[in-house]
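Example for tutorial group B:
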């Protein structure tokens, strides 16, 4: 299946995990890619893998929380490829604290990367996405839908991503833009390692574990690709859980 032939994809968080898997999935389906991340070596590995799959790829270091980085990256995408059809906001960080000890700086950085970063990419890309009647897929989380202990900043940021997604969908649907988010849980990536903090209540922590098993990030890549493809076109302003029935 080649659903992304002639499509230009701007994708954040491409170095590892869900972003890496999604970049490869879209490359294998004919996309041209502009991929960004802050992890240089892993990003270049993803770019090489995508080139081997036949994709034209530009990879750049870009901190999504940095307004200038984001603006420059979107402008360069347009300069190089002439358009952008799909934006996938996948970059994210997770921080773990007992909330009574949560440093403000860490709270703010988590929101800056996960929520402000997603907003900045959307804002800069929307004028160009309106020209292509394009699609945005943001990555929220099951933590936006049900409480998680020790990760309040992360959960708040992901709930913000969900609200941002729906607001943009309503604001721009009549102009032909599609905006959805996915809410993963229990995906095997660096992010789902044991939290590096003491005094953890495991029962609370496991509340959002899948009833089946943890799965590889390719599962989320497939969902993002569906939403971003013409097949998923009528799904708009939706959030889609992909969590092995954790929150069913
Ligand atoms: N793994 C899960 O179960 C799960 C569940 C829900 C949501 N998510 C979300 O999926 C997305 C991908 O996470 P993952 O699980 O693949 O983990 P991951 O750590 O492998 O991937 C996150 C990527 O984002 C990049 N990144 C971090 N800060 C950045 C910044 N400021 N600018 C640009 N890139 C930056 C990292 O370098 C990394 O490549 C995240 O938004 C995460 O919150 C993951």
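The residue assignment follows.
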């Amino acid at each position: 299946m080649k659903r992304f032939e002639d499509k230009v994809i701007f994708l954040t968080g491409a170095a590892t995990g869900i972003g890496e898997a999604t970049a490869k999935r879209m490359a294998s389906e004919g996309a041209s890619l502009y991929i960004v991340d802050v992890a240089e070596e892993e990003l270049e590995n993803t770019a090489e893998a995508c080139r081997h799959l036949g994709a034209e790829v530009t990879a750049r270091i870009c901190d999504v929380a940095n307004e200038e980085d984001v603006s420059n990256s979107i402008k360069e995408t347009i300069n190089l490829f002439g358009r952008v059809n799909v934006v996938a906001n996948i970059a994210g960080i997770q921080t773990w604290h007992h909330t009574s000890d949560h440093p403000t700086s860490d709270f703010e950085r988590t929101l800056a990367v996960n929520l402000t970063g997603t907003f900045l990419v959307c804002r800069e890309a929307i004028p160009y996405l309106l020209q292509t009647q394009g699609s945005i897929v943001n990555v929220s989380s099951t933590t936006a839908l049900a409480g998680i202990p020790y990760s309040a900043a992360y959960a708040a940021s992901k709930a913000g991503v969900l609200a941002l997604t729906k607001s943009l969908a309503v604001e721009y649907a009549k102009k032909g833009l599609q905006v959805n988010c996915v809410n993963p849980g229990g995906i095997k990536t660096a992010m789902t390692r044991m939290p590096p903090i003491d005094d953890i209540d495991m029962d609370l922590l496991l509340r959002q574990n899948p009833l089946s098993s943890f799965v590889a990030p390719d599962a989320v890549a497939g969902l993002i690709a569906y939403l971003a493809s013409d097949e998923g076109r009528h799904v708009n302003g939706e959030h889609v859980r992909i969590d092995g029935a954790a929150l069913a």
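The radius of gyration is 17 Å. Compare this with the pattern of hydrophobic and polar residues in the output above.
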